[in-house]
Amino acid sequence: MRNYDIIIIGGGPAGLAAAISAYDNGVKSILILEREAQLGGILNQCIHNGFGLARFKESLTGPEYAERFIVGVKERGIEYLTETTVLSVSNDKKVTAISAENGVFTVEGKAVVLSMGCRERSRGALNVAGTRPAGVYSAGTAQKYVNILGYMPGRSVVILGSGDIGLIMARRMTLEGAKVHAVCEIMPHSSGLKRNIVQCLDDFDIPLYLNHTIVNIEGKERVQGVTIAQVDANKKPIKGTEKHFDCDTVLFSVGLIPENELSKTAGVNLSPRTKGAIVYENRETSVDGIFACGNVLQVHDLVDFVSEEAEIAGKSAAEYVLNGATEKEVIETDCGANVTYVLPQKINKNAGGNVKAFFRVSKVIKNCTVKAECNGEVIISRKKKIAVPGEMETLLLLGDKLKGLNGKITVSVEGETE
Amino acid sequence: MKKELTCVECPMGCRITVLLEDNKVIGVEGNTCARGKMYAENEVFDPKRVVTSTVKLSCGGVLPVKTDRPVSKKDMFSVMKVINGACCKAPVKTGDVIIENVFGANIISAKTVE
Ligand SMILES: Cc1cc2nc3c(=O)[nH]c(=O)nc-3n(C[C@H](O)[C@H](O)[C@H](O)COP(=O)(O)OP(=O)(O)OC[C@H]3O[C@@H](n4cnc5c(N)ncnc54)[C@H](O)[C@@H]3O)c2cc1C
Ligand code: SF4
């Protein structure tokens, strides 16, 4: 069994940035394990642009953004194995993986970084009536077909769910000559970024039906059509509002869930809110020396934030290897009004330094006040024109303030709701 | 006259208000950066977009490509036609020009393939 100081599971943007950051913080013995044939993760199939503006001040495509980090890993001579799937991680940091080249093998790390990304929610969880013909795909699968394998899964499309991948695929398939009839979203607001509504739907006159769902999928061997209908306040279809579209393809874009099967094998405590690990501000999980970052921890919409988070995790893993475990004095964070989750869930007061808290809101809120409180005392508050569920929010908690706190920090967003 | 826009230059998606008088832009509000101002000024008269797509690789698979600058929205489908007629050979580096001068832009590689 070979030993490494740090083993990184997943070679997407999170794993790559964590590796580089760990290396630059003094740990050179690092191994990245990646299931796919190439490094870069989901970015390899995200050929659209808009990545990296915060970080590089230019608008890159997914593969271009990934390449900058792949080059960084190669320049440093950091080891990686591709086409290698990790099967389990133990709480004493033994990582068991399988590949055609090496068979089943185990490597041991002093620290482990979990960066497995997320997977798409499947249609099975959705209970749509009708047959189960061919032509029903998740939007991400369709994206892989078109952008990596180079063929179109269909010509006449209806999309359920207004997640970003669905919106991006509406444009992509339209540009490739398909007809996208509609995107329907069961919620009263889109779950995708506003810019994607504009440049993926509005640009091509693709209608977005809010408060609508698919009630039936028709076709025996191949999809032949779908029926959509408006829903009431209880998300039940309203009779008489049905619309029918002839189509050969249905795409589902109904959200992403962190891929935490491995985290469970390691005994990492998960949050029911984020579906990812419960972490400290340094991205350490409930298991000493196991860190998490990127989409496996919380579903990010901006890769720039993924890289930032991964750098924190990589640096912390390096510090853990070099200095050992640290004594922690913990304050917890909690969700206040209109907030669905706050990350990190725990802050170590002894760590010092500022902590950027990430969170999401439950509904569209205009002219709002974003606030963090502890025992009724406001630690920081900020005004914001609009906060929407599709976009992650942040709040900077200052280290000086954190030191003196006792009790939970509650983050809330209050303002005009519809 | 006022026109409300959403900037698509980056995922911030700033809501921008453009003030127009006699068909001229007299003010831009709500943008966070200079890109947003430029976007808004273009958007009211001649909207432009970067087109991203793929080109066939002769060794199999596809290569991600993009226009090296935004092209007029109305020309997007014509640009796609040119891209879909092309084929390219590895090795190729990010930034290499794959097709020259397509509606005022070059189609460049967005990936290095060895
Ligand atoms: C369709 C789509 C569009 C997006 N658009 C934008 C955008 O326009 N702008 C923007 O800034 N951001 C965008 N994002 C967000 C950004 O791309 C992601 O947040 C980012 O890629 C997440 O990085 P990650 O490394 O956490 O996960 P991933 O990129 O998913 O990487 C995880 C890696 O782990 C590997 N892995 C998983 N399990 C195992 C295992 N058991 N063993 C070995 N390896 C494993 C996977 O193969 C994968 O390579 C988009 C995301 C998606 C999905
Ligand atoms: S104005 Fe600047 S920050 Fe705002 S969306 Fe446009 S490019 Fe992004």
Provide structural commentary.
Chain A is built from 9 helices and 28 strands. Chain A has helices at residues 13-24, 53-56, 62-75, 139-149, 164-175, 194-201, 261-265, 303-323, 399-403; strands at 2-9, 30-33, 49-51, 60-61, 79-81, 84-89, 94-99, 103-114, 118-120, 129-130, 136-138, 156-160, 179-185, 208-210, 212-218, 225-230, 243-246, 249-252, 256-258, 290-292, 330-335, 339-343, 346-348, 355-361, 365-374, 377-387, 393-397, 409-417. In chain A, the strands form 7 sheets. In chain A, strands 1, 2, 5, 6, 7, 8 and 20 form a 7-stranded mixed β-sheet that branches. In chain A, helix 1 (13-24) runs parallel beside helix 3. The mean pLDDT of chain A is 93. Chain B folds into 2 domains: 2-45, no CATH class; 52-109, CPE0013-like fold. Chain B contains 2 helices and 10 strands. Chain B has a 5-stranded mixed β-sheet. Chain B has a 3-stranded antiparallel β-sheet with strand order 1-2-3, with helices on one face. In chain B, strands 4-7 form a two-stranded antiparallel sheet. In chain B, strand 1 and strand 2 form a beta hairpin. Chain B is elongated. At the A-B interface, strand 4, helix 3, helix 4 and helix 6 of A face strand 5, strand 6 and helix 2 of B. Flavin-adenine dinucleotide binds at residues 9-15, 33-36, 41-43, 46, 48, 50-51, 85-86, 115-117, 143, 164-165, 168, 259, 262, 294-296, 300-304, 306 of chain A.
